[in-house]
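Predict the holo structure. Ligand: pyridoxal-5'-phosphate.
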Amino acid sequence: MLPGPTNVPNRVMNAMLAPIINHRSEDFRTLYKSIIEKTQKLFQTESDIVLLSASGTGAVEASVVNLIKKGDKVVIPVNGEFSTRLADLIDSWGGQSIRIESQFGENPPYEKFEQAFDEHNDIKALYAVYNETSTGTTIRYMDKLGDLCTRKGCFFVADSVSILGGDELPTDKWNVDICITASQKAIAAPPGVSPISISQKAKKYIQDNTSPILYFNLKRYFKYYQEHFETPFTPALPLCYAYSEALDMILEEGLDRRIERHRQCADAFYTGLGSMGLSPFAKPDARSNLVIAVNYLPGIEDKKFRDILSNEFKVLVAGGFGNLKGKVFRIGSMGEVNKYHVMRTLSSVESALRMLGVEVPTDSINKAMEKFR
Ligand SMILES: Cc1ncc(COP(=O)(O)O)c(C=O)c1O
């Protein structure tokens, strides 16, 4: 129950047993073309897709080093570890981040973005971490941010690493120019490949303004795909097989049904935990359906609690990052998550709390279970 990597179905694991093929062969071209087409369905986009052999950070970095030039102004909401990291990366690459800060667990009001655009002209891009994994918050006005960027003629980039495949993200409809995710979260594949979509507008800019980089040089990826349906460098083949299988499973389930399953599981988590007396870290209008961050009750020690969960009940949850270390625990409710995982996790949390001397109301589990009826 980690917020990544998540459980990988056997069908996806087994796909990696296929022989290693020549990545300059028709076999690979057929595979890669089908991966790209299926990824476009997952992203709900007609844009170009690149599959990077890297974890999510590589894809996030690719979005910065291909698009941002020295002195470029970039608006970015900052309210957690991953948004801070991204803003720091933009600055260290030579961009100028214009940070819209808010308390961790909250999103800034949308009006702050309008204000930032009023105060600064020539903003090059707006970067947003759609789901801040460190705090369990989701930005619920991504569509409005996309509209704003279109009106202002700037690029809109979404770090969707811990959400794509588990919540709404119609890339084209929301005008996302560069959308980034990774294989090991809601897609439920092993870690190591990261798909990224690039709009026509962003592609043209990147092609006309080459970046002095090699491995993440998107221009090369466009060229190789256009000319050969190949990648410029040796792809992580077994991960491509696994990712392709995971995409098949997602499309078989149907995106809408998958999103609804995540919503239902999150609802059961928030209900069950709430009736145990535990409060979510995130404010109600910012709560994630994929990362459930929970405040510890006073006197409960992080390590002890998570050791009980893992050693006694074989349930792994994550701790907090930075300032939140020891203050919250985080449940990944993503990928293959279903009623079984939710109910087993809730029962284990309840038992662990009792073992640590907390009196827990007896109807918490039933209340969560009702969400599945
Ligand atoms: C929102 C977000 N962005 C970026 C990353 C970095 O991804 P990775 O650990 O795959 O490099 C993560 C990882 O958890 C994340 O949650």
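The mean pLDDT is 98. Residues 4, 55-57, 60, 82, 129, 133, 159, 161-162, 182 surround pyridoxal-5'-phosphate (CB under 6 Å).
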